[in-house]
Amino acid sequence: MKTILLTMLSMTLLQACAYKPIIDTAGRSGTFNSDKANLITNDIILCEQLAEKHTNDLVESYKVVHNWYLRPSTLWLMPKVEYTNQKLVRNCLTKRGHSVLN
């Protein structure tokens, strides 16, 4: 029983870290005159590090449990909770001039 609970807890912790943004490398966000695709790898790494530093793993794990287990058990009457980590990465990349599609 302990191993099952430990496995489920570790899986929920790992699910919160699985966000990979889709970025339009040919497009521009409209605020910059030049294409920022040459800085994309560095910006993704920096934005993911900033988001990881400023999010709480326990809160993000609860959001996974809420969205994937509690909402279906109440027939989706509870509102969906947005993941803070994804929002921070998306906002960081947008502010750095990348067109994030998701």
Determine Rg (CA atoms, Å). 17 Å
- Strands of the largest sheet, in order across it? 1-2
Strand content: under 5%
Order of helices and strands: HEHHHE
Number of helices: 4
Average residue-wise pLDDT: 80
**Distance linking N and C termini:** 38 Å
How would you classify the helix and strand content by structural class? Answer: mainly alpha
Question: Care to give the gist of this entry?
Answer:
This protein has 102 residues and is mainly alpha-helical. Helix content is 56%, strand content 4%.
Write the topology of this structure.
Layout: H1 2-15, E1 23-24, H2 40-53, H3 57-73, H4 84-95, E2 99-100
Antiparallel strand pairs: 1-2
Helix pairs in contact: 1-3, 2-4
Structural notes for this entry:
- This protein is mainly alpha-helical.
- The protein contains 4 helices and 2 strands.
- The chain has a two-stranded antiparallel sheet with strand order 1-2.
- Helix 1 (2-15) packs across helix 3 and helix 2 packs antiparallel against helix 4 (84-95).
- The longest helix has 17 residues, at 57-73.
